[in-house]
Amino acid sequence: MDEEFQLEKTVIERLAEWPSQKRDRVFYLVVLPLTVMVVGVSPYLFQFLFFPSPVSGLISLSLKVLLGAILMGALCYALTRGLSNPRFKSFGPHRRHWPLVSHLLILWIPAALLIDVPLRISELQMLGPAAFTPEITSYILGVSFGRAFLFAGGIVFYERLIEAATQSADYRQKALRLETQTLKTLIQPHFMLNSLNAIRANIEDAPGVADQMILSLTSILRMVIEYSGKERITLAEEMDLVTEYVAFMNQRFESAIHLQISDTARSRVSIPPLIIFSLVENSFKHGFSDSRQGTISVKAEAGDMFSLTVDDDGVETKIQDTTGGTGGQYVASRLELAYGDRCEFRHGRLENGHYQAVIQIPWERSADD
Fold first, then answer.
1. Residue 359: what pLDDT?
2. Beta carbons of 294 and 258 less than 8 angstroms apart
3. What is the pLDDT of residue 78?
4. Which one of 178, 198, 233 terminates a domain?
5. Tell me, what DSSP letter sits at residue 101?
């Protein structure tokens, strides 16, 4: 059973990797007409096998079903592709966001009018003119529209399944890019070489400091590699990393950057990894590059949303960012990936010259609590 599920999952994921236009073309113009053809003709084929009748009748009916299936596929394809245009705000390319009723109507009405209703009329014709009574006709048409509705529901399920697989694949790719970006930022040659040179400079004059810097650098790398691959870590774990990083940077630059962390900021609330770390790292890069003293504060407040504030009193500098994205861009991407539109992120310089970043996210307790 698991193997069958895995096979199905693999097929869906492969379809999701196709460009949407190619996927729609194959599904609506090939797979859908053939499926409708098989479903529509099967009852009459069985009837022909058990109760022989002229072949010409079966051929004629099959051609009608095939023509209707082709017309239905073409119409559904044209409507779907047309409404997938980004200019249609209520629809657009992400079909999982389409209004469900509208999506069903697009497929239901063509399926009923072009396929099932003609078949039901053909059935009545087979019974003779006396069969066309109001009661029987309304019943047949009701069944026809009901079956067409179920058929359209299956197609909508296919659409939503493909879109969900596409979203999942996009999520994994974006998470991998963010993880790679974080590691690239920390392990970039500029940071590593300067850190190793600072350690080397202390080996003879202050071996104890050099040993401590090696341990700190090793701990920082270990935590970043471990945390960057996770969807969530606790705020307390993030603060441990930030504390280690600030201590290391103070030793490296012989600076006195004071880190203030509120008690609430050491809680077991779950957050996306490295968002506070990226902002603190950004403070060193852009706020304290020319200064050797100052304060970075990290505060957390519990309300309807969980609020995190990072504030530094460094002086803004115009240093070119060669890491592939600023700390703010990383944080915005990581929050969007984790919460979509259920979060808020503001950052920038205040009137007093401080750089401040404010993050508001939904409450998420650690699974260990």
1. 95
2. yes
3. 84
4. 178
5. H
Q: What is the residue range of 337's domain?
A: 187-361
What's the sign of the alpha-carbon dihedral 129, 133, 138, 140?
A: negative
Q: Are residues 157 and 246 in the same domain?
A: no
Domain-embedded: residue 366: no
β-pairing verdict for 355-361 and 344-349 = antiparallel
Q: Is residue 369 part of a domain?
A: no
Query: Does residue 163 share a domain with residue 30?
Result: yes
Low-confidence spans in the chain with pLDDT less than 70: 1-18, 96, 103, 119-120, 122-132, 140, 150, 158, 161, 163-190, 317-327, 365-369
Encoded tokens for 236: 């307390």
Residue 315: phi and psi, rounded to 5, are -100, 130
Give the number of domains in the chain.
2
pLDDT of residue 243: 94
Task: Note the Cα 167 to chain centre separation in Å.
Answer: 4
pLDDT for residue 8: 44
Question: Residue 174: inside a domain, yes or no?
Answer: yes
For residue 47, what are its two tokens? 């009837």
Same domain (yes/no): 140, 197: no
Mean per-residue pLDDT of the chain: 77
Do 91 and 226 belong to one domain? no
Residue 119 and residue 67: Cα distance in Å, rounded?
12
* Beta bridge mates, 101: none
Contacts of 162 by beta carbon, 8 Å cutoff, 6+ apart: 12, 15, 16, 23
Beta strand residue intervals within the chain, DSSP E: 233-234, 256-261, 270-271, 293-302, 306-312, 344-349, 355-361
Asked if 238 contacts 273 with a C-beta cutoff of 8 angstroms, the reply is yes
Same domain, 211 and 323: yes
Q: Which two structure tokens, joined as six digits, stand for 59?
A: 């051929």
* Helices 327-339 and 134-186, axial angle in degrees (round to 10): 150
Same domain, residue pair 134 and 195: no
300 part of a folded domain = yes
Q: Please check whether residues 146 and 82 belong to one and the same domain.
A: yes
* Tally of CB atoms within 10 A around 38: 12
Tell which of 160, 178, 196 closes a domain: 178
Cβ pair 307, 358 in contact under 8 A: yes
Going from the C-alpha of 305 to that of each of 160, 269, 359, the distances in angstroms are: 31, 12, 10
Q: How far, in Å, are 242, 251, 254, 294 from residue 291 at the CA level?
A: 19, 14, 11, 8
Q: Which CATH number belongs to the domain containing residue 250 in this structure?
A: 3.30.565.10
